[in-house]
């Protein structure tokens, strides 16, 4: 498929998914496109994984042994960037076995968890991780704010959650417009986490801005 072509569900040139696409459809498409994913995003100058890894590293105080979960890890592009920065204690979770299989072939993570991120409890104990990196995973039909409580549960008090996404999706994706950031604020008001940063980063995906949120998890 050439760069400017679109499937019924995904337009490579814009990196956008069809409005109303379901989670099940999204995950099936990732399974089908897994082999081609890295070339698609490389051709579109996808800088998100580097920007996410660098933003997280900046607030990690140099703890290179930190246990980090790459959430919606895909083929492991964010892990590749974290490894370059010296972070080697990495696990992956993603709903697409096809994407995880590519990551596995690269030997990037200790644990590869194929599971759906949403409100349901994950097979991960409380307070397990020092940090979460979550890049490119808030998009049409992808993660929603309903997964935040689970992410908070599995991160240690004082641990960090870094979420990098296309800035425009905050306004253009129906599930996020007027909902995603208010849900983040509501969790802050409940004392679940505190915001450390909300930075706009240029050229996150081709010429599109990204937004990088960093939250510190508070003792519950
Ligand atoms: C654009 S890719 C990002 C992959 C990687 N983080 C990166 O930046 O290259 C989005 C990933 O989110 C995963 N995903 C989407 N919705 C999910 C859900 N509800 N639960 C688990 N994984 C999901 C997909 O399988 C896919 O691998």
The number of domains: 2
Biggest β-sheet description: 7 strands, mixed
Bound molecules: S-adenosylmethionine
Quick one: overall form?
A: globular
Find the structural class using helix and strand composition.
alpha/beta
Q: What is the helix/strand order?
A: EEHHEHEHEEHEHHEE
Q: How are strands sequenced across the largest beta sheet? A: 5-4-3-6-7-9-8
Question: How would you explain this protein's 3D organization?
Answer:
By secondary structure, the protein is an alpha/beta fold. The chain folds into two domains: 10-43, no CATH class; 48-217, Vaccinia Virus protein VP39 (Rossmann fold). It is 32% helix and 26% strand. The protein contains seven helices and nine strands; from the N terminus they run E-E-H-H-E-H-E-H-E-E-H-E-H-H-E-E. Strands 5-4-3-6-7-9-8 form a seven-stranded mixed beta sheet, sandwiched between helices. A two-stranded antiparallel sheet has the order 1-2. The longest helix is centred in the first third of the chain and has 21 residues, at 23-43. The protein is globular. It starts with 9 loop residues before the first strand and ends with a strand. The structure holds S-adenosylmethionine. InterPro entries: Methyltransf_25, SAM-dependent_MTases_sf. It comes from Branchiostoma belcheri. Residues 68-159 form the Methyltransferase domain.
């Amino acid at each position: 498929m050439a760069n400017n072509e679109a499937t019924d569900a995904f337009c490579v040139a814009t990196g956008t998914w069809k409005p109303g696409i379901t989670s099940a459809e999204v995950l099936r498409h990732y399974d089908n496109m897994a082999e081609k994913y890295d070339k698609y995003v490389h051709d579109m100058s996808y800088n998100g994984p580097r920007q996410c890894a660098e933003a997280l590293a900046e607030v990690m105080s140099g703890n290179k042994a930190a246990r980090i979960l790459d959430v919606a890890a895909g083929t492991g592009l964010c892990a590749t960037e974290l490894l370059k920065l010296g972070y080697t204690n990495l696990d992956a979770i993603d709903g697409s076995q096809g994407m995880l299989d590519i990551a596995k072939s690269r030997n990037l993570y200790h644990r590869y968890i194929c599971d759906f991120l949403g409100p349901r409890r994950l097979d991960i104990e409380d307070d397990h991780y020092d940090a979460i990196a979550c890049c490119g995973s808030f998009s049409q039909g992808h993660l929603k704010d309903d997964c935040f409580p689970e992410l908070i549960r599995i991160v240690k008090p004082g641990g960090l959650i870094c979420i990098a996404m296309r800035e425009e999706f905050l306004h253009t994706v129906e599930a996020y417009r007027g909902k995603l950031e208010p849900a983040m604020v509501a969790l802050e008001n409940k004392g679940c986490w505190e915001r450390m940063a909300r930075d706009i980063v240029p050229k996150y995906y081709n010429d599109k801005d990204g937004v990088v949120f960093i939250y510190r998890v508070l003792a519950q």
